Amino acid sequence: METESNNSWARSERKMNIPPELLTFLREKNDFFIATHINPEGDALGSSLALSMALSTIGKNTLLFDQDGVPELYRFLPGQEKVMHTYADQQPSAFNLLLLDCNTPQRAGIEALDFRQSAVIDHHETESDFGDIRWIEPKAAATGLMIFYLIKELGVGITKEMAVNLYTAIAIDTGTFRFGNTTAEVLRVAAELADSGANPAFISGSLYETWSEARFHLLRMALQTLEIRDKVAFTFVNREMYKKTGTGPEDTENLSSFPRIMKDIRISVFFREIDDDYWKVSLRSKGDINVAVIASFFEGGGHKNAAGYYIKAPLDSAKQLLLTRLSELT
Predict the structure, then answer these.
(1) pLDDT tens, 36-73?
(2) Reported pTM
């Protein structure tokens, strides 16, 4: 007799609608180059690691790549030491590409490479036509959720190591189950991953309670830059702050979310300086404000409540350009 949990899984599987050609691709090919976006976070890394482990289980050869490597924050993830940040000793043209949690090779820093075939697995609202096979699920809470169902469909059992990676992926993109994309389905999957060996307390502690003193000082400096205009909160970190605190760009993860704690803030905007008058902009919103649409105006993208883009402009000009776009949409 089929249990209710099995019924739940079946309903979710149909909802995900895994392309048959993707399953054939994974079952019939043998060598996979798994890549994800630059400045990787938990969903990108956890999804990539779990899929690599699953494919290895069924005898496939995988190579994991991220241009920026694994940030210190995520070095608790099982298998993270296998992620390469260079492919100098490899021949990517001998591999099939699996592009995860992004949908253009430019976003992963591999646009100059040629592969046998390519498949994209992503959940961002903004998408491209890249990929011989594309599985895009904008309504999925995380790419890690998609990989969970994909591993199941491949007939691979979820190991403890896979569970830790997938739980981390889903936790990061749901704000540890606080954001609006936290559904009953997400919680059911998280529970199954916990049953498979993921320890929620260990993972949340690793993500949120292992900051260095230097990183905490960087947060303090960022919050001192707070400026609020029309219920939009602006903060920034520049290169001088890195020097003063002994930190780097990877220490800015999650800093964009702190101003959103204030009840009257609609959007939190965080500027991270890359070069002179060149900024990476992270947008975090509440409710029905779709910042992916806003980011697309600046050739960026992302999700409804979390998106980003790059801009070349003085900081004050970049702020005003964003406010102008916001006023046109609201």
Answers:
(1) 999 999 999 999 999 999 999 999 999 999 999 999 99
(2) 0.90
Q: Please, are residues 294 and 326 in contact by the beta-carbon 8 Å criterion?
A: yes
Amino acid at 93: S
106 and 245 belong to one structural domain: no
In tens, the pLDDT along 251-273 reads 999 999 999 999 999 999 999 99
Coil/strand/helix, residue 290:
coil
CATH code assigned at 319:
3.10.310.30
Please check whether residue 35 is in contact with residue 69, taking contact to mean a CB–CB distance below 8 angstroms: no
Query: How far apart, in whole angstroms, are the C-alpha atoms of residue 326 and residue 330?
Result: 6
Helix-helix angle 143-153:4-16, to 10 degrees: 110
Query: Which residues lie below 8 Å from residue 138, measured CB to CB, with a gap of 6+?
Result: 123, 124, 125, 127, 303
The domain in which residue 248 lies consists of 213-329
CA 79 distance to own-chain centroid: 18
Final residue before a domain boundary, out of 183, 207, 231: 207
Residues 201 and 259 in one domain: no
Alpha-carbon distance 237 to 286, whole Å? 22
The residues near 216 (Cβ < 8 Å, ≥ 6 apart) are none
Dihedral over Cα of 139, 142, 143, 146: its sign = negative
Please give the average per-residue pLDDT across 24-29, as a whole number: 98
**Which residues lie across from 16 on neighbouring strands?**
none
Angle between helices 143-153 and 160-173 (to 10 degrees): 150
Residue 328 is predicted with a pLDDT of 86
